Amino acid sequence: MTATVLDVYDSDDPQAIIGEAVDRLNAGEIVAFPTETVYGIAAKSSDADAVAKLFDVKARSTGKPMSLAIGDDDSLDNYAQNPTAIMHRLARRCWPGPLTMVIQATDPIAGLSNESRALLAPNNWLGLRVPSNEVLLSVIDQLDEPLVLTSANKSDQADATTAVEVAEQLDDNVRLILDGGPTKIGTPSTVIKVHNHHIEILRSGALTRDQIQTALQLEIVIVCTGNTCRSPMAEMLLKNKMATANGIPIEQLLQHGIHICSAGITANNGSPAAEQAINVLGKQDLDLTCHSSQPLSYTLANSADLILTLSNSHQRSIVNEWPEFADKTSQLADDGSSISDPIGGSYEIYQQCAAQIDTHLDKQRSRIDNLVIPNQDIIRE
């Protein structure tokens, strides 16, 4: 039986095509989808018969589990038995994207039958991925449940990167193929296993080891208003403290997995630090001359492990805009006081401001130290 191939992006009504894919999946069929890596075939995770059929179509041993494709608004905590800071950090920075994370699963796994769980999470390890493809994510959203997803090829055969290649390999077993054109990356996702604070690369793929190492960095963002006075001073003072604590020069913080930056609620791009701020920190051999201001963006806030604000109004502004960041956003001053804005003030006012910031940074150190700073051997291959 010849598969129906529908071109999503060349359609007058792409939502109708997405709707048909949802109907086919609800009927227990296998559907082929584009992803950013390679084409995949999928079944409803709650349909044990469809999941078993997926293994047959793939000609894959049940000893080789497949992964769950979850939506970008889904929570890692719904599936991970003991979600860690490392898992959440990778999820924030790599999803949606070409990373499959194998984690110890909850028992039971919401929405999965015992039969499906046995196929997907043998020995209690489950692969999770959020694909970066709007069509696939729309289908998952409309189904309101994850999909079991695997590459659209027979086991041990070449990965399919076009709808035509899917049809050539699986035409007799797949009734519907959604054509999204050639895949952007053309290489399968990287598969990692996360256990405790270590990562094992199970399959090399689209994300390199170096890219994963970068995604694991501890990131702290310090926020004020214009990002020219208080937050640049706080950024540099914290960098100095972290470098001293780790016995390394400030310039080597990134190499040791520590990224500290600053931003402003109403900042422009590219403004230098205030002259008085440069002079005050210069007395401590800390160089602010290369500082360039930036506004706080969603991407920057989302990536951060911790957001420290210089006043209550900055904290409120962030939480009002992005309520999902409330748990990781707090004032630098743990007593709830604000650090007064020294803009336009004298050298002495800036000096007092820097001293105040320095004192409160010391009080934040225990909290910062509790965040996981990845060591250089965290990744194993």
Written account of the structure:
The chain is elongated, with a radius of gyration of 25 Å. With 381 residues, the chain is an alpha/beta fold. The protein folds into 2 domains: 4-208, Alpha-Beta Complex (DHBP synthase); 217-379, 3-Layer(aba) Sandwich (Rossmann fold). It has helices at 14-26, 48-58, 85-94, 114-120, 134-143, 163-170, 209-215, 230-246, 275-282, 298-303, 312-321, 347-370; strands spanning 4-7, 31-33, 40-44, 67-69, 99-104, 125-129, 147-151, 176-179, 190-195, 198-203, 218-224, 258-264, 306-309, 329-331, 379-380. The strands form 2 sheets. An 11-stranded mixed sheet has the order 1-8-2-3-7-4-6-5-9-10-15, with helices on both faces. It has 12 helices and 15 strands. The protein starts with a strand and ends with a strand. Helix 1 (14-26) crosses helix 5 (134-143). 34% of the residues lie in helices and 18% in strands. Strand 11, helix 8 (230-246) and strand 12 form a beta-alpha-beta unit.
Distance between the termini: 43 Å
Shape: elongated
Order of adjacent strands in the largest pleated sheet: 1-8-2-3-7-4-6-5-9-10-15
Helix content: 25-40%
How many discrete structural domains?
2
CATH C-level of the largest domain: Alpha Beta
Would you tell me the overall average pLDDT? 93
The number of distinct β-strands equals 15
CATH homologous superfamily label of the largest domain: DHBP synthase
The computed structural class is alpha/beta
Number of helices: 12
Poorly predicted ranges: none
Element order: H for helix, E for strand: EHEEHEHEHEHEHEEEHEHEHHEHEHE
- How much of the sequence is in beta strands? 15-25%
CATH architecture of the largest domain: Alpha-Beta Complex
| CA-atom Rg in angstroms | 25 Å
Largest sheet report: 11 strands, mixed
State the CATH topology of the largest domain. Answer: DHBP synthase
